[in-house]
Structure formats: C-alpha cells, structure tokens
Amino acid sequence: MIEVLASGFLSTIQDAGRPAYQRFGVPVSGAMDADSLAIANLLAGNRPEEAAMEVTISGPSLRFSAANVFAIAGADFSPTLNGEPIENNRAYLAAAGSVLKLGTVREGCRAYIAFAGGLEIQPVMGSRSTYLKGKIGGLDGRALRAGDSIPFAAPVSSLPNMPWRFLGQNFGFPKTPHQVLRVIPGPQFDAFSEDGIQTFLSSVYTVTGENDRMGYRFSGPAIAHKEGRDGNIISDGIPMGAIQVPQDQPIVLMADRQTTGGYTKIASVISVDLPRLAQLKTGDTVEFQMTDIRTAQECYRKRARFYKDLYRQFNERDLLSAHIYRVGMPEKIFHVTLHEYK
C-alpha cells in the first residue's frame, strides 16, 4: 500500500484514458504526457498504459507500507527516497516504511510515479484515470490528498535485470521552457486567411495562466480568419492536440478536453509531440511547425517500436547480455533519447 503524507499541488491517478466513451460525451482523460507514463511503467515492469500517479508543479510525499519496486519519469522534482537523492528514469526497490518525496519542479511541469504490479483501483468505464470535473475514476474522482491510502495490486521485491533498469538522466526531450510543436492541418484549415496561417506558423506563442488538464490557452500575434468567417462552426469532434482559434488566439486541447466543440480548428499537434506540450507551464513558449500525416504516422510507429524494444531490453536476460557484450559498458546501454526515434 502507498500512503499519501502530503499531496503536492495536483496529484492524480492516470492511465491511458477511456477513449471508448466519447460518443456519450465522456472525456478521455488519461496521462497528459503519455511518453513519461509509458517509460515509468516499463521501468517498473508494467504495461506502458498501466495506471500511475501523475504529479504537477510540486510533488507528493509518500510512504510505502509494503515493499515494492517503483520508477519516476518526466519532469525533475528532485526526488528523494528516505532522504537520499534518487534519479528519474531508474527502477528502485522501496522497503516497507520507506518515504518517497518529490519537491517543487525544477524543469518541466509533470512527472509520473509507477509502481510495480500497478495500483488496486476499481476501473470506471475500462480506465482508472481521474476526470476531475466529472468526479470519475481514480480515487473517488478527485485529486489525492494527505491521508489517502492506495493498495498495490501485485507488489514485487525485485524485477528481472534490476541493476540495468535505467535510461540515464539525459533521456528524452529537453524539458525546456520553449518547444517546437509539429502540427498537421485541422478540419477548418481553409477557414483561415493566408496571412493568418503564415502568422500561426511563424510566430512565438506564450502559455497564459489559463492552462490545465483540459487545455492550454496561448497569447501572441492574432491569427486571422478569411473575410466573412469567424471562429464559430457547427460542433464536431475534438482529438487531443486539436488547436481551436475562437478569438484569433490558439487553444490546444489536452487530456480532459470536451468531446465536441464549436470553434474552428486550424491544426492538430501530432501525438508524439504532445508530451512536449504537457511539460510546459505558464510563461513558457511554443512555435508551431507544419508537417504531414505520413510523417506523423511514421513517428507514431517508431515510438511504438521503441516501447517494444525497451520492454525486451529490460525483461529478456539473454538479449540484455548480448547488449552488454556488444557495448562493453553496461551503464551506456540505455543512454538514448526518445527524440532519436522521432
């Protein structure tokens, strides 16, 4: 069991979400940064989509009432285990009574704590993700708070290749306050003027204080519609990463987005770049760069292959031994960056 001693700014239980219920108006929810969720879970011996703890801005303090393996991925919260600094992107065994603390974020915005065997939480519509506004899923549909206790589903005291279940501190994309996000044209791309599209693709936009798990509102140069058009349309479906422009400013919709919306969508952020956006906070900036659907699909396939390769390297002893033999230095095996696969 994991006991919450302090909750941090916003800590919730999230997995890959509940996409099968959008036709009934139920938001997908799930992890904002799907890459970090997957990495934490793979390190902890779980499936990439398993439920984990998503922490935002400032982290929780947790006590292990039973021993278990865990891993942290995503933003840097200066984590400690029993007062000793530990690393992101590495599996650790916490003995019963151990205290894990995450401080205030240093770089990025969100991190994920995965526990081997997962957490014993009743699924709602096939998912353990928390949708806060609807009070659905997770722990009573709410953020975690001090005094909460969550049972482990199947805790373990060790995993295969424990000494080599790590990826190195430099793994992944840099959690910098400026990101370039690749986009593909949205369903109302032709509602915007040529000048408006050029402005959208050549300007820097700043994350405003209106950002949360539902979406990010940006401020920057005005994005013009064609003459006679405005930001209103008959409502249609909204994927994660859709960029609405209701009043000449972009809003990127995220995990807790509504299922339909009535504003023009100039573009959508490709799925492999959404984790970059999820690590931004108020005052950070982005640029939007046009790409095509073929590139987006190939990036998605490369990421899926990367996760599969990681699972094999962490869990197949013979393959791991071959890597050690070929590389010569075990600590170099997993020193890769995810954007190499994008």
TrEMBL record:
Keywords: ATP-binding, Hydrolase, Nucleotide-binding. Residues 23-306 form the Carboxyltransferase domain. InterPro entries: CT_A_B (IPR003778), Cyclophilin-like_dom_sf (IPR029000), PxpC (IPR052708). One of its GO terms (molecular function) is hydrolase activity. PANTHER family: 5-OXOPROLINASE SUBUNIT C. NCBIfam families: urea_amlyse_rel. This is Biotin-dependent carboxyltransferase family protein.
